[in-house]
Amino acid sequence: MKRITAALSIFALCASAQANAAATIVAWGDNTYGQASVPADLNGATAIAAGGSHTVALKNDGSVVAWGDNTWGQATVPTDLAGVMAISAGGFHTVALRSNGTVVAWGGGTTTECAPVNCGQSIVPAGLSGVTAISAGRVHTLALKSDGTVVAWGATGYDVGQTSVPPGLSSVKAIAAGAYHSIALKNDGTVVAWGWNDWGQTNVPDGLNAVRALAPGFRFSIVLKSDGTVTGWGGEGQADIPAGLSSVTAIASNFYDVQALKSDGTVATWGINALGAGNTPPGLSGVTAISAGWFHTVALVAPPVTAVAIDIRPRSLSNTIHLQSQGAVRVAILSSASFDATQVDPASVTLAGAFVRLKAKGKKYACSAHDVNSDGLADLFCRVETAQLELEPGDTTAVLEGVTFGGQHVRGEDRVRIVP
Length: 420
Ligand SMILES: [Ca+2]
Ligand SMILES: [Ca+2]
Prior knowledge:
The protein folds into two domains: 23-301, Regulator of chromosome condensation 1/beta-lactamase-inhibitor protein II (Methylamine Dehydrogenase, Chain H), CATH 2.130.10; 305-419, Sandwich (Immunoglobulin-like), CATH 2.60.40. The chain has one helix and 32 strands. The protein has one helix spanning 9-21; strands spanning 24-29, 45-50, 54-59, 64-68, 84-89, 93-98, 103-107, 131-136, 140-145, 150-154, 172-177, 181-186, 191-195, 211-216, 220-225, 230-234, 248-253, 257-262, 267-271, 287-292, 296-301, 305-307, 310-312, 320-322, 328-333, 350-351, 354-355, 367-370, 379-385, 397-403, 409-415, 417-419. The strands form ten sheets. It has a five-stranded mixed β-sheet with strand order 22-31-30-26-27, with no helix packed on it. A four-stranded antiparallel β-sheet has the order 23-25-29-28, with no helix packed on it. Residues 1-21 have low confidence and may be disordered. The chain binds calcium ion (CA) (2 copies). One calcium ion (CA) is lined by residues 311-314, 316-317, 319. Residues 311-314, 316-317, 319 line the site of one calcium ion.
């Protein structure tokens, strides 16, 4: 399906930036420190991380924004931080993974819990590089390296084994830090756990396999299996998974509650609903990511999309596209009684990843208002660059996406016949 060449990657980046620019963040649960009060001017968020009582967002430009509890400096993002590809928020600290494989951490350290000794969770080991994933616990931090090994630090003075990575642990593809324990997912789908075990949170069930994602909480651990079901162990009821829960695509654990994102974009929750962590806003949908703090929960929500009718090669029924042609593909977004296609911003339109062609003079977009189907309503008629199409022989449909000048996201699709 994808046929992005290096030369086109800049366009792909632009496209995802446009799509993400409208994603919103919704937060609920404990708001004692303002951790559930999302900054009104925040836009462009592509990832979220809920910490103890603070919240962090990664933006599409690689910058990071944080809010909520800043008692230990955990919400004070270093001013020179850039090029971030992943974030994780711990109990009192924040960790960022940069695209060059290095790690930056701030906050935490001498919290009440750690005093008088610095827990060291923000003291990144010197020379650490080649990192592909990070996870922050209450007072410790985990890093996964590209060679499949795990590095852990912090918890000095509050060490209950959470940084004691089992000797020889390798072939790891994902890591997750619970409050005081750690778990790792191996390439073969099995799980290894270590650290505090007062409620059985590191007692991985015998024979557990086919695991896809990890969500350790306070005294429990939850995992997502490849078939979309969830299982767990330890804790005080958090491992009692709701009967029939399926089609789960992501999981997150608060201190006492669990959040499961379903493939339909809704969130299921269970546990004791401590301080409202499980008070999912009524009607919440379109969720693409979730993160759980101690007592608050954060969701990344995609904008609603309106389905519209399009016509590729108006008046042609075969809609044949010759990929090798140097030209453009004509496509119309059709107006209806309830939708004015001429309000779609030509700069936002993509067809199968291809942008609207620019006219040489004045760099104007090659779109015009034109009634292509003679129903008396002007449609938006555009030409997109054939060379940018992410289509290949065998594909039978092409998807058009766009945004109106008023901010309404639209999506339409039409049949195609692809000629190489
Ligand atoms: Ca057609
Ligand atoms: Ca029309």
